[in-house]
Structures are given as C-alpha cells and as structure tokens.
Amino acid sequence: MRAKQTEVRFLIETKFLEKLKDRMGEEKATDVMRTALALLDWATEEAAKGRVLFSSTEKGEEVHRLVMPELMYVSSLAAAGAI
Q1: Is 67 part of any domain?
Q2: Tens digit of pLDDT per residue, the chain (83 long)?
Q3: Farthest CA pair distance, the chain
Q4: Residue 6 lies in a domain
C-alpha cells in the first residue's frame, strides 16, 4: 500500500532553483525539493539527538558549524523533553 502523500506548493526565486538544479544535476524541481527535505529531515533528527552539524575540508580542516534557528529550536525542544 502506498503511503499517503501531500502536495506542497510555494514560490521560490527561479535563479536560485535553477542554480540548485544545475549544481545537483537534476532536471526537475521536485527532485531538488525531495532531496532538500530529506536533508532537513536528517538534520532535525540529529538536532533532536543533541548533535550539532559541521562541515570541513576532507582533511578535517576549516571547520564550520551549521547554525540555523530551526535546528536550534529542535535542539531546545529535545533538551526540554518535548520531542
């Protein structure tokens, strides 16, 4: 049985979407958004576990922490036991 699906519509700047499609090698906006939501799902799961997200070079240098109010919100809810 197929899971229930919801259609989501929103406006996004065309240049921004085209840049993402080109960078990802995708032809469809739907595929870009599916990937983006999968990444957001993973990031919020990590935040709910009290983890923080970083990026770095392959050698582990130039470390940068991903700071998003949305992830901080999820972390605070998890710390309070709300999720």
Answers
A1: yes
A2: 899 999 999 999 999 999 999 999 999 999 999 999 999 999 999 999 999 999 999 999 999 999 999 999 999 999 999 98
A3: 47
A4: no
Number of structural domains found in the chain:
1
DSSP track, 24-45:
HT-S-HHHHHHHHHHHHHHHHH
The range of the structural domain enclosing residue 19 comes to 14-79
Apex 31 CA angle, 30 and 37, nearest 5? 90
How many Cβ atoms sit within 10 Å of the Cβ of residue 35?
13
Judged by DSSP in three states, 54 sits in strand
| Total-model pTM | 0.85
Q: Is residue 9 part of a domain?
A: no
